[in-house]
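Predict the assembly for these two chains.
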Amino acid sequence: MIEFRNVAKTYDGGKTYSVKDLNLTIEDDEFLVLLGSSGSGKSTTLKMINRLIEPSEGSLLLDGKSITDLDLVQLRRSIGYVFQGIGLFPHMTIAENVAMVPRLLGWPLKKRVDRAKELLELIGLPYEKFGERLPEQLSGGQQQRVGVARALAADAKYLLMDEPFGALDAVTRDRLQQELLSIRRKVGKTFVFVTHDLFEALTLGDRIAIFHEGVMAQVGTGKEVMANPASDFVRELFARPAQQLKDFRGML
Amino acid sequence: MAEQSIFDFLKERAPELFQRLTEHMMLTGVSTGTAIVLGLVIAIFVFHYRSFREPIMAIVGILQTIPSLALLVFLMTLVGKIGMTPALIALTLYALLPIVRNTLIGLESTPPSILEAAAGLGMTPLQQISLVRLPIAVPSIVAGIRTATVVAVGIATLSAFIGAGGLGEFINRGLALSSTRLILLGAVPSGILAIIYDLSLAAAEWGIRPVRKIDSPLSLKQQRFRRRAAASLPVTLFVTGLILYVVEHPGAQGRPHVAIGSKHFTEQIILAELMAQTIEKGAHIDVERRFDLGGTLVCHGALLRGEIDFYPEYTGTSLATVLKVKPIIDPKVAFVTINKEYNRLYGATWLSPFGFNNSWAIITAGGASRKNSWNNISDLQPQANHLSIGLPAEFAEREDGFPGLEKVYKLKFEKVEDIDTNIAYKALAENQLDVAAGNSTDGRIDAYKLKILSDDKKYFPAYQSAPVARVDTLRKYPQVERCLNKLGGQIDDAAMRALNYEVDGNHKSPAIVVATFLKLHPEITKVD
């Protein structure tokens, strides 16, 4: 369980808020999507969980313990992290990339290789064909799958994903969304997923937290939010895609 | 006399070429190797501890701007030794900058997305450097190492000035003897060596790149083998160089031997070679030749430290440069004074002077001197305001040079030109210049049929030449002292000019010129 209690992140010595007075609880095994446009504070919220960004105010609890009391390196190794930039290590093979966190954790080689094989199988890039390749030899979509496999490698309880499919074409994105859901069914984990794409949020999330100008405007299941938008902003957010969908149906 | 054919020249020099090459490989290999290790450590240190960065980079940068000869000589004084040690330190310091700078640039060039991944996965700052930043920096680091190596091969040629050997020996000797062949014998192999090092490093960089799995006729295993072979090329070269060096330079032999040094100009090399052959033939003691050292103070320092036992010196130079006192005009007084001071201060002594006096000289064309009946410098006085004189820069500036000469002889020339002696002699012969200042034993004076005017007012101090020796060496080998003293009075000004001309003008090697001289004077090397 991840709990935000009155959390804020400020810049310029406290003058500018990028996240303001956030209270949010993420349940175990939940798939929570943080939805908002750029500058809304959704990514900052995510990165505070693994302390890539340190909170300025309030407390952030991981399974009841304040994250500032936990060892930074241990904290990050116990949380999977996938982001739009992917950041595969260009000088390591795919298998070595996937087995990075197990290596940092000091697993023996045999166990690391077995784990890499298992995960590459799971994401549909079998070790025999892809394991010895270098990242530059893979397409963008394949690279992002490797990024997901790398985040899963140490069997972390939490998986943070920061717009992981943002740079991919629509077809690839759609397929990866489906694969992510199927992976989710196989591995019991808590997912926190950042996106600016409403449809992606609706496809993946159990609940959606909507961010606007540093403030969490509303949180709930897709249906709840659509039925009872808490503000004009939320209403607007859904109105425009709904109109587009209608127009599109009319064309058919 | 015609020069040797290229083939004979190479055949004759081959053993020394090999020896110098191994020295060069040792110098560059060890210094660059040290600089790589040191440079990586420094770069990683200042990358991690940012506050040290500016000062350390400034120091490393400043080192690079010190002229290499100055740094070599400075380190020689600091270390208190001539030879390999100061040369290795200087070369290592020079190689540092490109390696440190390129490593830093490489460490900083990691794309931000990869850094975010490294941090996000839970790497410690040091793991981020060792697992991610450093491997990604490899191409940049190798580029720095390549620059450093090529620079080191070049600068290593300068270390011959402080007696460290290497291919620079040939270049120095070639410059001193104005022999293009000798210069090329040093320059071409060092150029080739630089190219070979550079290529081997390029191959090594390819070798340590990660292997891509591609459709290649070679299996992954074969590909990896080839990569490893390429990666180990520079190390192989380095080790080969070291082994050859050790084979070529077995530790100091137990056999009795003495070491003779010289400065880096023709006359010095001839005199040192003369001393060496006299000792070898007359006393049957092995001689280690450490010629072409970079100047009076280098030779003097080496003598004090016992790195050489003998070298030829001039009384005038010794007074001005070593003892730093006013010139003494009377040659006998000068010699006795210097000898006393050397015994008292340095545990060194001057042996019998060779007989010639290499002082400044005022020279005219032979024809002009006959026509105007110029024999003494004073004879120029009445006509001086219609005459032109050419001076080497050094002579023009020194108070005991031209300004003093003008005063003592009351000369006022129409035209005074700064001109290199090489050109001055030719200009005299072609009547483009009336008078010039030069050295009294220069071989070209006779070759151009020039005349030295007599210093009738005894203005120029004497520059008598004699072997300087360490007293303890003479005590150990008294037969060497007897031997060298037989050279006393054997060479007058004309004889020295003739010997110089054989080397400078006829391009014969000093060893051959000296051997011929000794054959004509068998009494010198006759064993008592």
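Chain B has three domains: 16-209+216-248, 257-357+463-525, 360-453. Chain B is about 60% helix and 10% strand.
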